[in-house]
Queue: 3 jobs
Job 1
Amino acid sequence: MNDFIHAIPKAELHIHIEGTLEPELMFELAVKNGIALPFKSIDDARQAYNFSDLQSFLDIYYQGADVLINEDDFYQLTWSYLQKAAAQNVRHTEIFFDPQTHTARGVKFETVAQGIHRALKDAGQKLNLSSKLIMCFLRHLNAAEAMDTLEAALPFQKLIAAVGLDSSELGNPPEKFMAVFDRARKKGFKVVAHAGEEGPPDYIWQALNLLKAERIDHGVRCLEDTALVEHLVKTQIPLTVCPLSNVKLRVFDDMKQHNLKRMLDLGLCVTVNSDDPAYFGGYIEENFQALQTALKLDHQDIFKLARNAFQASFLSLTEKEKHLDELEQFVYGFGEQ
Ligand code: ADE
Ligand code: ZN
C-alpha cells in the first residue's frame, strides 16, 4: 500500500508556500539576512511546533516568514517544496501565497510573486510538475487592506490564477470580504476560500453564496449541516482537506477521529493536501499514509482521492484528461503486478 501511495500520480491543491519553510532553510536565511529568530536551534524550532489551535500555529508561522526578504529567498523556498513534491509524484500543484505577510515588512509584491513564479516555471521545465498560483488575503486584517493587495496584484495578474482567503477564521467570516472577491471575479480571477476548518458550516455557505468560491479549503465542519452536505454532493464543489494539519491544530483529537472517510463515502469531492508541511510533520505522501493507516483506506479510496484532485484543479479539460489517463494507466498497471 505504501508503494501505491508513493507512486500514484498526485495533484496538490492546498499548500501555503510559507508553510513549506523547513527550519534548516529558516536558519540559513535568518543568518544571511540578519534576522533574529525566536528559536535557539533547528531542534528548538521543531520542539515549538506543538499547537493548541489555528491561532497558536499562525503566531509561529508568521514569525518564521520574517526571514524571507529577497527574490532569491522566495525562489529557494518554492524550489525546495517543488523538488519534494516531484519526488512524491505530484504532477500538478496549486500554491497559496500570502503577499500581506511580506508587504507589511516592506518586501515588494513583485519580489514575492517573481521569486515564486521563477521556481514554478523551472519546475514545469525540469521536474515535469505543472502549477498555478493562488493569492490569499489575510482575513484577520481589514477588507480595505485586502482591496489594496488586489490592486497591487493586478500588474502581475498573468502569474496568478485565483484568489483565496486564509488566516484566523473565527470572527472573520467570508462576508467581510464580499467587495474584494466581487472585484477579483470581475477581473477574471478564480475564487477559493478557507472555510469550515475551525469556523461553523455557515462560513462555508457564505464562502459559496457570497464569495462564489469554486473550491472550499478544509470544509471538514460541513458534516454538521445536512443541507450543506446535500448541496456539496450535488454541486461536487471540491473540499481540499489537510489531515495532518487537522490533527496538529486539534480540529480532530487524532487521525482515527478524522471524518475524511465519511466525507468520501457520502460522495463529497474531497482531496488530500499538506497545508503547511514544514510545521505539521509531513508532505502529501505522509498525509495519505497517516490517513490510510488510521482510517483503513483501500486502494479504491486512494484512487478516488487522487482522481478528485485532478478533477478539482484549475487545469483545462484537456490537461485534466491527460492526467486522468495517466492515473488510470497507473492503477491498471499496478493491479497487473
Ligand atoms: N495559513 C496557513 N495555514 C493555514 C490554515 N490551516 N488555516 C488558515 N490559514 C492558514
Ligand atoms: Zn490552509
Job 2
Amino acid sequence: MIMDLTNLLYGVEGGVATVTINRPDKLNALNHQTLQELGQVFDAARDDESVRVLIITGSGEKAFVAGADISELLEVAGDGAGAATLAGFGQSILRKLDNLGKPSIAMVNGFALGGGCELALACTLRTGSNTAVFGLPEVSLGIIPGYGGSQRLARIAGPGVAREWILTGDMIPAAEAHRVGVINRIFAPEELKEGTMKMVKSILKKGPLALQFGIEAVLRGWDMSQGEGEVMETEYFGKAAETADMKEGMAAFLEKRKPVFTGK
Ligand code: COA
C-alpha cells in the first residue's frame, strides 16, 4: 500500500504506472524522503498486476533529477561509514527496479545528473528529450557515484564511456548519450511523451512473462561468462516454452491474427 507521497506523483492508467519526481524548485534532487517514497512506489508497481510498464520522469521543464540532494550529502562529510550507509540505501532503492518483474523506462526530460543519471541507468530503458543533459559530476564534489552508476554505466555503455563520464564529470548532451547507447530513443522535447508512449504501446502488446524473462536474462548475464549466460538463457527459454503465452503467440502467428496474451 502506498502511504502519503510528498515528493512524488504516482498514477496508473491503461497498464502504465507513471512516477513523477516532484521537487521542481530543487530540480527534483533525490533527498532521503524522495528515495524512501520511490521505494514505496516501486514495491507497489511490482505487486500491482495491472501495472505492465513503469515510467519515471521529472516534474517541470528543466530537470529529470539533478542528483542526490547535496545539502543532505554534506551531513555525511568526514563520516566514511555514514556515507557508505547512505550509498547502500540509495543502491537498495534503485535495485528494486532490477526486481520489478516488468520493464521500467526513464523518460528523461532535462538534467539527469549524479543520482538522477544513476536512477535513469537503473531503468530497463531510457528515452530522452534532445535537450536533456546527462552526467556524473560527483568528482566535482570530491566524491564518486554511489547509487550503482559506476557499475551500471560500465555495463550499459562500456568501461571506456564510464571512465570518461566519471573522471571528467562533464555535462553530456543528449545526442552523445544517445550515441553511446545510454538513451535508447531520442525525441524533440514536445514529442518525448508521445514517442515514449509509442514504445510503451509496442511493449504492452507482448507477453508479460516473456518480457520478464528477457529482462532477467540480460540482467543476470551481466555477471556471467558467455558460457554461463547461455546456460541461464536456455533455462529461461525452457520456462517461456511452458507458458500458455507461447502457445498463444505461435498460434496467433500461424492463424494470422493478433495474439491475446494472459501472462500465464
Ligand atoms: N541537490 C540539492 N539541490 C539542488 C541540486 C542537488 N543535486 N541541484 C540543484 N539544486 C537546487 C539548487 O541549489 C537551487 O536551489 P535554490 O533555488 O534553493 O538555491 C535549485 O535547485 C535550482 O538550481 P540552480 O543551480 O539555481 O539551477 P541552474 O539552472 O543555475 O543550474 C544545474 C542547474 C543542474 C547545472 C545545477 O543546479 C547543478 O550543478 N546541480 C548539481 C548537480 C550535481 O552536482 N549533481 C550531483 C550530486 S551528487
Job 3
Amino acid sequence: MRIDIISVVPDLLSGPFSHSILKRARERGLLEVNVINLRDYTTYARAQVDDYPFGGGAGMVLMIEPLVNAMEALQKETHYDEIIFLTPDGQTLNQQMANQLSLKQNLLLFCGHYKGIDQRFRDHFITCEISIGDYVLSGGELAAAVLTDAIGRLIPGVLNDESSALSDSFQDHLLAPPVYTRPETFRGWQVPEVLMSGNHKRIEDWRYEEAVRRTRERRPDLLEDKD
Ligand code: ADE
C-alpha cells in the first residue's frame, strides 16, 4: 500500500512512520509513505500557499492552485483509490473505516492548516473527509499520522501475529480484555488465577466475558451498535 501525504509542515511527519510497526512495514515493502511539501507546488512568490479568506474573517485559507498542482503531479504516476482530506468536520474515524481503507492500494491525504482549504478543492477533488475526533488540532498532520498508523498496522503481513489485529479493541464491537505479564505477584497484587491455569478454553471464555464487561461499563454504545 502507498500513502502520500501533502502538507505545509512536512517536518511534523518525519517521526511517526520511522519507528516500531510502521517502520518494519516500510522496510518489508508492505507500506510506502511519502510526505510531500505543498510549497514545492506553488507558482506564487516566496512559496506562498495560502491567502486571506474572501468575505473577511480570521485565519488564512490554503489556495486551490497549489493543491491541484500537487495532486495532478502525483496522479501522473499513481492512481489513487481515495483522496482524503483530514478535517474536524469530516466523518469521525473508527475501526471499521480503518479496516476498509486498509484494503486500498493507494491513498492521497491532504492536511489542512490555518483556517482550512478552499472549498472548491473539497467539492471537486476530495473523495473522503475524515476527522479523528471532536476537537480541533492546529493542522491535519497529526490526524494524518493517526490515520496512517491505524490503517498501516492492518495491512496483511504487517503485524507478526496475524490474529493480533483481530483481537484489538473495536474489532467485534468489543473493547479488549485486560492483559498481564510477569511477575505473577507484585506488591501482593495477583494476576487472575485463570490466566495461569493453562486451560485455553477457560482463558478464552474469561477474556470474552471481561471484554463484554468492560464494554458494558465503559462503552455501552458499542454493544447497541452491534448488528
Ligand atoms: N484538523 C484539525 N483538527 C482535526 C481533527 N480533529 N481531525 C482531522 N483533521 C483535523
